[in-house]
Amino acid sequence: MSDLFLTGIGQLTTNTGAPLSDAVVVIESGVVTFAGPSSDAPDQVGRRYDCEGRAVIPGFVDAHTHLVFAGDRSDEFARRLAGESYADIAAAGGGILATVASTRNATDDELFQLAAGRVWQMIQTGTTTLEIKSGYGLDRATELRQLEVARRIGEKLPVTVKTTFLGAHSIPSEYRTDRQGYIDLLAEDMLPAAAPHADYCDVFVEDGVFTVDEARRIFERGAELGLGARVHAEQLSHTGGAQLAAEIGAVSADHLDHATEDDIRALAASGVAAVLVPGASYTLGSGHAPAPSLLEAGCIVALATDCNPGTSYFESMAPILSLAVVQMGLTVEQAIAAATLGGARSLGFSDRGYIAPGAVGDIVVLDAPSAAHLVYRPGVNLVRQTFKSGTEIDSI
Ligand SMILES: [Zn+2]
After folding, report:
1. Percent of the residues in the chain that have a pLDDT greater than 70, as a whole number
2. Fold of 60-346
3. How far is the CA of 291 from the centre of ligand 1 (A)?
4. Separation between Cα atoms, residue 25 and residue 27, nearest integer Å
């Protein structure tokens, strides 16, 4: 692969120091070998891509999505806005279980096509690495199909994918009167079957969903099978998911809208990444996670879309950045770092989320002179070009 010289960069966000102006990035065999001022750049020997004064940032790392699903819940969205509660809608067959029914009925090919369409939107809006959860099967066969579709997305599209088994997303209707039976099935049957197809295991710890003790059992089984833990914690109420994440050494605690000062201290002390999803808080009209306090306490903070058909149907990171700055109180620089480097760290990557020698060439050129425009003009796609491992995505 020939060298690629990105020249004429008006503002370069490296995430290794202050943004640079009049910068150059050199990518060799898909990996960054130089990022710095044009005056220090090596002699140009390869192909040139002139950024013409535009801003350049690392590719987004979206560390929390549920994008493999079938069905449409726009009716439910309208009903919720008209005042019906999620509990009433779920009791009438809506909510997660409605998506479970549609997903079980979809073929592998339908699931792949639907997911790939969403992922193309993400790639075109600057996402280069993704986490994808199962959780709309709630039976062994469909959970496995979701994980396989997620892995196939990573093979067929120019995006890196990590997968998470979320069989503990809800109790399926066939186990409504036998929740212990479902938890046994998860631990003894579904998790071992899913483990070869997953990087992580996740549990929705919430009032009326899974308790801390139930989640601990599932995470312990996941750990035996080599799966790191990601925890849906403190989203709709405070139920102890964040403390559990700290106790078991989870990789991440996600949502955290109701996290307390004690939770924040525990997450920081145990190195659990806080994956924040302001799109869900926005869609539900609820409060946001305490993002500035998490950063001040020294937590790794990541921003993610939480792309799902019920509570956060975002297929682009730019509006998430905007919510993080306008509503959560992060600075533009903090939000961009969380959406790139924070996501990468929460997924265990040390080779992305920044632009410096050794990083993969996952890079986004914006149609704007500075990265602040992503937050300032959230209504349009400002991504001019996404590079995956140093190659333009439309030529892959
Ligand atoms: Zn989620």
Report:
1. 99
2. TIM Barrel (3.20.20)
3. 17
4. 7
